[in-house]
Design goal:
Elements lengths: L1 E2 L14 H10 L4 E4 L13 H5 L6 H14 L4 E9 L5 H11 L3 E5 L21 H17 L5 E2 L12 H19 L2 E5 L14 H10 L3 E4 L13 H4 L13 E2 L2 E2 L16
Parallel strand pairs: 1-2, 2-3, 3-4, 4-5, 5-6, 6-7
Antiparallel strand pairs: 8-9
């Protein structure tokens, strides 16, 4: 069992040290974890997202040292260095350089901001000057831009923008299909983010119908609790095992140094068959 999406105190809006997350993972029988702090984005929307949710770039080496301390303290647990990297149009060169310099094991792509949305609008505060269907189409268009760059290993919480009054597949099913097809063609995985089970949506991101479509497309999956405190490590993973996440027939990939590892046998904690 592995958990490929977790934060820590370095993300400002989360709590706990890497060692505390490692202890929680070991106690839950998880054999591999990947920390994915939000990527520093120098100069991007200062005073808003940067100060609230991500560490400053000057802090990153200190964070990595704390990660190394956790590795030494828990030698029986594989601890990977990952990043949750926002795709922001115009910052591709910075992103490419930062990822190349740091030697990450795994890079998650997230979309929190969409080019053309006004002011400091983001996916938790949708623009009110356009229809919800248009908002959805803007979001998935931005997501495909990011996937097409080839900079990312997996797409985090693909349907984070969803609203209960307008189901995604009913309104923009074509956008979802195009996005999944691009993941398949680019060899990019899709995260099944269990944090939604802790929120009002009461299901993973993306929901089970979209996950099932991804499995049909042959898109590999990555598991993530999106833990923001040690007690959330592995939270919601029972949804993978009992079928409520839509993962039947799929399998969860592992990574090392940005390489997707071969899967000679399915991980019985999550699935019983390999992806084609």
């Amino acid at each position: 069992m592995h958990d490929y999406h977790m934060h820590s105190r370095w993300c400002r809006h989360a709590s706990g040290t890497p060692a505390e997350y490692a202890a929680a993972a070991e106690a839950r029988g998880i054999d591999e974890i990947c920390f994915t702090p939000h990527i520093p984005l120098p100069g991007y929307r200062p005073g808003f997202f940067n100060d609230r949710i991500r560490m400053d770039i000057s802090e990153f080496d200190s964070y990595l040292e704390e990660l190394e301390q956790a590795r030494r303290a828990f030698p029986g647990l594989t601890i990977l260095s990952g990043i949750e990297a926002d795709y922001v149009r115009g910052m591709e060169k910075f992103l490419e350089g930062f990822l190349a310099e740091r030697g990450f094991d795994f890079v998650l792509m997230s979309v929190h901001f969409v080019h053309g949305w006004p002011g400091d609008t983001w996916v938790y505060d949708l623009p009110r000057d356009r229809s919800l269907e248009t908002v959805y189409r803007d979001y998935f268009s931005c997501m495909r831009e990011g996937i097409a760059t080839g900079l990312f290993d997996s797409v985090a919480h693909l349907d984070l923008v969803k609203q209960p009054e307008l189901p995604l597949l009913e309104s923009v099913g074509d956008e979802v299909a195009r996005t999944l097809a691009l993941c398949r063609d680019q060899g990019v995985c899709m995260e099944v983010n269990a944090s939604g089970a802790r929120k009002k949506v009461a299901e993973c991101y993306p929901g089970p119908a979209i996950v099932a479509l991804a499995v049909e497309e042959g898109v590999h999956l990555t598991p993530g609790s999106d833990a923001h405190s040690p007690d959330q490590v592995g939270s919601g993973f029972e949804l993978y095992a009992d079928g409520r996440a839509g993962t039947a027939g799929g399998c969860f990939a592992r990574y090392s140094r940005r390489m997707r590892l071969s899967e000679p046998a399915a991980d019985q904690a999550f699935c019983s068959t390999k992806l084609r």
